[in-house]
Amino acid sequence: MRRRALLDGGIAAVALGGAGLLSGSLTAAFGREDLPPAAAAPGPAAPRPAGNAPSVPAAQVPVGGSATVKDPASGDAVYIVQPSAGKYAGLSSVCTHSGCAVNPPKDGRLYCPCHGSTFDAATGAVITGPAVKPLPGYAVTKNGEQLELGPQQAQA
Ligand code: FES
Description:
The structure is a single chain. The protein folds into two domains: 1-30; 37-152, Rieske Iron-sulfur Protein (3-layer Sandwich), CATH 2.102.10. The protein is built from three helices and nine strands. Helix content is 21%, strand content 29%. A hairpin with a 2-residue loop joins β3 (77-84) and β4 (87-92). The protein is of the alpha+beta class. α1 (2-16) runs antiparallel to α2 (19-31). The strands form two sheets. Strands 1-9-8-4-3-2 form a six-stranded antiparallel beta sheet, with no helix packed on it. The chain has a three-stranded antiparallel beta sheet with strand order 5-6-7, with no helix packed on it. FE2/S2 (inorganic) cluster (FES) is lined by residues 95, 97-98, 100, 112, 114-117, 130-131.
């Protein structure tokens, strides 16, 4: 029974592939022999735990550049930008004029190819219309070497 539990736990750990889940699987295998390992560990199709924010390595966001992540609430693309060294922000890629996708930041601006609006790459503020509203912003938190996208911020 113990050997079978260890084998099953090992297979489940490989299938899950996460260190945190591996820890849970080993706990199930070693500490709870009364339960079959399959009942103690979630299957490979288990949903991601809440709080797993979209993130990118900070090294992928140069000063003046960006990396793209997806807003889990809307599914829209969001640019994580670094307008100046060590300052990060998230800006929606959806133009506030008619919803086209704006281009990634270049020369301090984001340009919408549909009708020519431009937005400030640090704040999302409108530089030139026809858009009149800024790009929605997101909080970005640096956690170690990762940049994590927070929720969309309220518009002023
Ligand atoms: Fe972007 Fe019109 S949709 S300027």
